[in-house]
Amino acid sequence: MNEPETVEGTNVSNVHHPSITPYLPTPETATGTAILIAPGGGHTKLCLGHEGDALAKWFAEHGIAAFVMRYRLCREPESDYTLEGHAMDDTRRAIRMVRANATQWQIDPNRIGIVGFSAGGELAAYAAMHPEMGDPKSDDPIERQSSRPDFQGLIYPGKSATFTVEPGMPPAFIAFGYHDREDIAIGMVGVYLQYKAAGVPCEMHVYSNAGHGFGFRPGTTTAAGDWPERLCDWLVDTKLLKRNTMEPTQP
Predict the structure, then answer these.
(1) How many Å apart are CA 98 and CA 37, to the nearest integer?
(2) How far apart are CA 30 and CA 108, in angstroms?
């Protein structure tokens, strides 16, 4: 537990102390919407560059409070951590922490979502599938909060065969590349149909010239690279984001 994290470029591993890094908009531009970001990395590392900090900065610039999560990794060599246990405990705790600090961070506690990439997309999906109610009797004010996200963004997530959908789940935004592996490029189509059958609002984008791991890179000129714009459009349509506070003031 006393070992430091291992940092290689923008990738981080050897995470034993889960955390969130906040990127907050200015008070003048804050929309009240918040997004927890779960980076991918195959549960062996966290890709904090194109699947973490760069996107969080972009969200903050557009009035959305963003939080990049460092979670424990279940597929590192000799790791004793589990996905359904430790990594999901970290995810639920992170959502609760954001909700518990909603007033301080100028966040609407009913507009807190999670966006996950690849392995992080699994955590985002499971957070929506298996939320836990807060314990009002807990001595810890964070644990009194619900871990249910108000919306979910599944960006080329793995393990699609394990996803289930029930009525009343949070609305979902799905994005992936046509050239991704079959469990994503085909599997997520089946997941979308589950959302449709359950009557849960869902929007899906398939990018014909993209594969796995396109993430977000500032200055992109590709359609897949602009998916955060589409996410914001969807949030506005879903009444989870107020666009008028995102637009520059006209002279």
Answers:
(1) 12
(2) 10
Q: What are the tens digits of pLDDT across the range 50-92?
A: 999 999 999 999 999 999 999 999 999 999 999 999 999 999 9
Distance CA 69, CA 36 (A): 7
CB-neighbour burial class of residue 248 (10 A; exposed 0-12, middle 13-18, buried 19+):
exposed
Structure tokens at 155: 């960006």
For β-strands 34-38 and 65-70, DSSP reports them as parallel
Name the DSSP letter for residue 94: H
CB of 99 closer than 8 Å to CB of 56: no
Mean pLDDT, each 10-residue run in order, the chain (251 residues): 92 97 96 98 97 97 97 96 98 98 96 98 98 96 97 97 98 98 98 98 98 95 96 97 58 41
pTM (global) more than 0.85? yes
Are 234 and 175 in contact by the 8 Å Cβ rule? The answer is no
* Pair of tokens at residue 129: 């599938």
Tokens, residue 131: 């939320």
Q: What are phi and psi of 217, to 5 degrees?
A: -130, 125
**How many angstroms separate the CA atoms of 183 and 198, rounded?**
21
How would you list the strands of the sheet with 172-177, edge to edge? 19-23, 65-70, 34-38, 112-117, 151-155, 172-177, 202-207
Structure letter (DSSP) for residue 91: H
Q: If DSSP codes are grouped into helix, strand and coil, which group holds residue 172? A: strand
